[in-house]
Amino acid sequence: MPRFFRFFALAAIISLTAGFRLKANTVFNVDLSSYYTPWSSWNPPVAAGSESGTGSTGSGLSFSDPGGENVTVGFVTPFSNYWPGSVTLSTGDANPLSSDVKVNTLINLFNGSTGNQVTVVFTNSVSATDTFTLSIGQTVRDYHDNNNGLDGLTGAGSGVTAVNWWNNQVSETDGTPQFRLDAQTFLLPSSWAGTTLTSMELIYPTASGNQATLSAFQIDDLGGANSPTPEPSSLLLAGAGLLSAGLLRRRYLQ
Prior knowledge:
The chain is α+β, with helices and mostly antiparallel strands. It contains two helices and eleven strands; from the N terminus they run H-E-E-E-E-E-E-E-E-E-E-E-H. It has helices at residues 3-17, 232-253, and strands spanning 26-29, 49-52, 70-73, 85-90, 101-109, 116-124, 129-135, 160-167, 180-187, 197-204, 212-221.
């Protein structure tokens, strides 16, 4: 192979890969404190539940509140008094995503009926969206076991998985935990690399007693390429390589 072709191939590889940077694994816990519906405002008032932020039933996931102390079980506004509606939670995370990002949440219900229960919509900084549906018995279930026949958790859904994260080790007559928190894991599109995750919207469509609760929202960036658009320095490097290849080709042809 002529030497200038070898140089041209090398320059092409540089131009294709120089714009990508590898990113180390980072975990960002979204602050949910401003979204919780105050338990004291309920009629009658209900005491807030608080579970260990590092407790895990083998899921391998660890959540924390802004103080790193606990995870609180609570509704997010306007999910109070069993009203339908939606709420959009801003992440506050300005870190560019890599091509390998998961979002972990703790979403449960206070009751449950059959079918789809919660729609989850993620939005990035260029207004692209990715939508998931949580279905009872598959990827979401009751926070409390009320023996309604929907207390299983297969853990498999469309684009989302789920696993029990915590339970209070108190069993009812059917042997299931009386209170529990379940963790969902959503895989974001690899094409979102270089953008930021700006928000998560929870849409709850019904006015029945299947109230959605949110206890944690975590962005787990596993690392990978996070700059799909070459940076100026990378473009200069690639341009220099192509220019060199061109000069070598000219010299070869003379």
